[in-house]
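Troubleshooting entry. The earlier prediction with adenosine-5'-diphosphate gave an output that would not parse, so I re-checked the input for stray whitespace and re-submitted. Clean input:
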Amino acid sequence: MKESVADALGRLAALGISGAGKYIEEFAGRVFVVKCGGALIEDAEVSAGILDDLALLNRAGIRILLVHGASVQADREMEAAGIVPRRYKGLRITCDRTIEILERCFTALNADVAGRLRARGVNAVCFSGTLGGGLLVAQRMTPDCVDIGHVGDVTSVRAELLDALPDDALAVVSSLGVGPDGRALNVNADYAATRLALDIAAEKLILLTDVPGVLLDRADPASLVPTLTCSHARKLIEEKIIASGMIPKIESAVRTVEAGLNKLHIIDGAAPHALAREIFTDEGCGTQIVRG
Ligand code: ADP
Ligand code: MG
């Protein structure tokens, strides 16, 4: 057994997760996409736990692509610049000044996350807008024909950039796309992660968020929907039970599962070692989106 794998097993055992060996064997060399919202990264303790888990997965030989947003960081900088953040169906309305702020926030956060991973011994590689070669090719989008500014959706992924990485690399991808004119487009991080996972045929996509999963009553964690079919998800959006940032998350999740992605889970990133537990144990947690 490789030393790094033995080390990962030891660390998992210390977390009370035994029997991970069979998963490590099964998943070695497979690609997992993990998306982490800006709010989770903002919390020092929560993000340290998530980065520890990512380092562990990396050591266990799983190929990870981490997609991150920068929602909280961008809200803060926008407010400081006197711009009131506004959203349309959960998507940030992005004027000229906002896209400049977002470019700064995304790139700074991207470098910060990669640096924290490197401090954990991980070969982290940065992708943010044109940085890293322009991984996410995007096109402007106008939901319901509404102009929401410099907001895009990913139209293709330059997967050759990922193929060129060494086996032990962990790609840290901000959800900043590159438009046809070479300029940055703000892509919702759930859109970026779902499209990326589909294009590279990832084994599994895990969306880490700040709630336990999809809830029927947002005030009641016990109202969690463990398995959500695509048709039920559409109904919950229509009924406005799914609202705000959960709309782009679920719409893109449904689109991706229907297009063929096998496994998609939405879990609470603040729960201790949620990621390691999701991957290395049989315990179900959060919401799984399935066809139907
Ligand atoms: P992320 O950083 O994970 O993308 P968002 O704020 O964009 O975070 O989306 C998650 C938010 O969606 C939750 O914090 C919650 O306030 C909101 N939300 C809306 N409807 C629901 C629902 N039915 N169940 C759970 N969360 C919901
Ligand atoms: Mg969001």
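This one parsed fine. The chain has a mean pLDDT of 95.
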